[in-house]
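Lab notebook, design round three. We kept the backbone fixed and only want residue identities now. Task for the bench partner: fill in a sequence for the structure below.
Input structure tokens:
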């Protein structure tokens, strides 16, 4: 199942971006695409989703996660997994694969990976998700203000990384679990989300400016 985000001129803009800008690393193509910090009911815990928008697999060896302390020395190490191109994985706090998939009623193949540690629970009143690679480079981050109980955050500003939209049943493949939570865990777009699109737009602007100077 795939999110059906509609992005026009994607191919042209990406071509321009690749021609003008330096090559984007595989790490830069790994994005936070969904966060849940406030559930309906109890006993399930927080989770976030990472998606690979690149054309190649990414093996996450030694990757770490921390919340709004933004301190890698306090971060917890995530399980080592490989994300195929166009694939999403859910990272859930202190649960099990069976418990998570039963909670959401998911029967399709999905990666659900478990993390645990001190001080990394996500605060419903506002918090952050920060991801570092095995070399200590910040790969991506997202932050949010007060979360609505039962709704995930499923869109983030490409510049500020602030959550800009909460999930709505039937929108972008979001659905409602049996206990009333709304989200789309494990469902990833097959095209880059807005941050990659913005990068392509920068490339287009740079090329047009260069051409104007040559006239």
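Proposed sequence:
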């Amino acid at each position: 199942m795939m999110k059906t985000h509609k992005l026009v001129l994607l191919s042209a803009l990406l071509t321009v971006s690749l021609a003008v800008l330096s090559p984007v690393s595989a790490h830069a193509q790994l994005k936070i695409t969904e966060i849940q910090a406030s559930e309906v009911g109890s006993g399930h815990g927080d989770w976030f989703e990472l998606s690979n928008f690149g054309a190649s697999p990414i093996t996450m060896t030694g990757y770490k996660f921390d919340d709004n302390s933004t301190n890698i020395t306090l971060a917890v190490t995530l399980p080592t997994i490989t994300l195929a191109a166009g694939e999403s994985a859910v990272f859930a706090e202190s649960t099990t694969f069976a418990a998570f998939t039963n909670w959401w009623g998911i029967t399709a193949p999905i990666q659900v990976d478990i993390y645990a540690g001190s001080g990394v629970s996500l605060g419903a009143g506002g918090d952050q998700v920060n991801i570092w690679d095995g070399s200590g480079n910040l790969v991506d981050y997202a932050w949010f203000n007060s979360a609505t109980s039962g709704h995930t955050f499923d869109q983030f500003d490409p510049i500020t990384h602030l959550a800009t939209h909460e999930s709505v049943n039937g929108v972008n493949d979001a659905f409602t679990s049996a206990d009333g939570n709304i989200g789309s865990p494990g469902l990833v777009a097959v095209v880059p989300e807005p941050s990659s699109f913005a990068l392509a737009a920068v490339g287009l602007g740079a090329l047009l400016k260069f051409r104007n100077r040559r006239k």
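Keep this in mind before ordering anything: The CA atoms of residues 94 and 113 lie 10 Å apart.
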